[in-house]
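Archive entry: two folds, one per protein. Generate the first.
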Amino acid sequence: MSPMRDVDHMNDFQLADPVPVQLLREDGTLSEHPQFSSYVEDLEDEVLRELYRHMVVERRFDAEATSLQRQGQLALWVPALGQEAAQIGVIAALRSSDRVFPTYREHAMALYRGISPEELMGTFRATRHSGWDPHTYDFNGYSVVLATQTLHAAGWAMGITQDVATGSLPEGRAADEVVLACLGDGATSQGDAHESMVFASSYQLPVLYFIQNNHWAISVPQKTQSRTPLAHRAAGYGFEGIRVDGNDVLATYAVSRYMTEQIRAGGGPKLVEAVTYRMGAHTTADDPTKYRSREELEEWKSRDPISRYRSWLLTGSKVDQEYVDQVDQEAADLASDLRTAVLAMEPMDLERVFDTVYAEPHRQVEVEKSWLKDYEAGFAEEVDHE
């Protein structure tokens, strides 16, 4: 066989796509799964209703934020339209004390953890670097630099294991804490994600890598980034990976519950690939019509995670139309309050940025702070001369 034919043969190699775990069919009917159905059978109706409420409220929040950006009230917005089930499914499976390291799109998770809409807007309104205290919610600030949060997650998990080993675990921290590292399909191509997974595997760290495979890394399709399903990557690092229907909140919850149980029992890191779709733009600076077809978008709209779940809830009498209307009203009220809060936000004092870099005074920071003062003073002088 010629060298060229060898290359052709290698390029044809692919691993078969594993069928994503699914409990809720696209028509809103429930199916049985031999391994994962049991994880949702014991969920009380109130919990099921709350999953729905969080998904709907976040979507309305997302739409309002998009409108605010289009009207010039936000510097940028990162829509999460279509990914509500994936985010709510995994965050609901965690304990409130489990640490989360998000990307810049985990709005549903942030709201679920109690971070207010106003706190979330601080970054996108450019009035603060991070709108909340990470330690209050065990939810780190948004990470704009792609995949760096995976390294932060591994470092936090390493700290937990060392604290447990030395008997110095801080008060309030659990010895079986799970660390959630969020990333998208695009971030899996970054070296940071690879390094984090190697480190987590080597030291058997309690990290759950949660990949929201929304099919597009800005304009690069997932099939270009990886010739094999992303869930298979876990095997290369020596830990378990499962593919789940990310538009099925019940399946995402069940798989995440299973994975966290394995991690808490000392099973080391795990990976979940939630197959979902970004129905909106990558950010409000993006035009998705330039790189994807209307047919593709319409196909995924038919798999909408909220309408699928609502159909099952209504059919099974878990909720009634009155409850659905109440949730819609709650979402509308939140959007109205959000707009009022955003318009009232004042710019932050830039000097404060320098004061919060280090706990102790630092000469270089003081030099930079002094330069900013002189720079701003220069504008005042120009106004006086006019």
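Generate the second and append.
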Amino acid sequence: MSARGESAIEGLDPRRIQVVCWSILLVAFTIFVALAIGGPWAGWRWAHLATRRANAEVRVTAGGLDRCLGSDCLPSLREDESWQAPESATLELAGGGNAAAFLRFVDGSTAQIERFGRLRLTRLRRPLFPFGIRRPTIALTLEPVSAGTALLRAGARFYDGPPDRAPDYHIDTPHGRVSLAPETHVQLRLDDDVLRVAVAMGQASVTANAETNDAPPAPSAATRMVVVRRGERTVVRRGAWPSAATDRPENVLPDSDFDRPPVEDEGWVASPVVADTAAPPQLTHVLTPGGRTAMRFAREGSNKSPADLVLARDFEAFDLTDATWLSVAATVRIDRQSLPGGGDRAEEFPLIVTLVVGDAAGNEQRWFTGFYSLAPDPSGSEFAGARVIEGRDVQVTPREWTAFDSGNLLDAANRRGFAGWSAAPVRLKRLEIKASGHDFEAWVDQIEVLWK
């Protein structure tokens, strides 16, 4: 060693050398402990939290199915063909509304998409090891397409483990998220402006989409999230919170109480079918002395000439394919009628409610009930041919409000129902409220078209 090096070492403070040595030893020991303890802990933690991607088994049960992975689309699947669909795959039915595909996930949960719609397998994950603590995840995104209604039936499998380990099974839509508890069966019906959720078994949580549904709720309205249990349903409309869960059929006529006059922008059209310029029928929106807002159909000075007035509401072909209930409820009143019953053809009533539906072949069919206060008198000297149809038409007490309920029109035992029609309805197309005859005065305070 050179004299200069020896001189430098001799010049160091021995205590300083000792501090440096101990510091090096302490750092080395810390690193050793970190590797000896932290490494296994990190490995243990990773093993408990690690997940792996899972596939979904997809089988086309009707029609065809288009499939894409990102921007790359694969050949379409045809009926009875299957595919192991990975996470991020997008499935779109192809078959003009008659297509369907069944999905089974790795935990045994299922989904079935029908009609029109696009389903994205947003996230499919399961724990990498059996002892993992991460919840299995099935995250789907259901989107409508321009053709029509998307229908998704989802079923979460039975689970009896710790509640915090239960699978996370949820479906996102443009209007909100539906989360399924274990052993839950739910049906989602998605259109451009509304999501309808019905639970057949178990329970589901329905949460409004915070990005699109940002209107503050009224004090009596449902909160952003509602729990829907067996036999119940909820509706999430664009820009609104979920409706309160209920087992009552849904009223698909949102402006049914006539709080304000019906307007064409909302689908209402009023027109005289047969106009008499001398005594045209009048339709007015009235606040009654009793505080009701009602539509008044009136005509006088007819000189025994017929005229009709129709207030109609178009439903834009509301899908009834899977409906189990369809009914009409109304509150009506008849103050005057000069022509007894429904006239010679039993079609000239002071008030008639008609539903127009379509069958699978595209044919229109009509159901209607006539309301009257003046019964026919076959022995009378005038209008002796006036008549009504028993079981269809309804006599009400003059100048008194009467509540009417058709009962389930899809029930074959209901005499007012569709049992005698040539084909079952698959589309709800239009509601018509009509006044017909000579002189009359009739009122409608509220009318509902109920569906489930």
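Annotation attached to the second fold: The chain has two domains: 51-248, 264-451. The first helix runs from residue 3 to 10.
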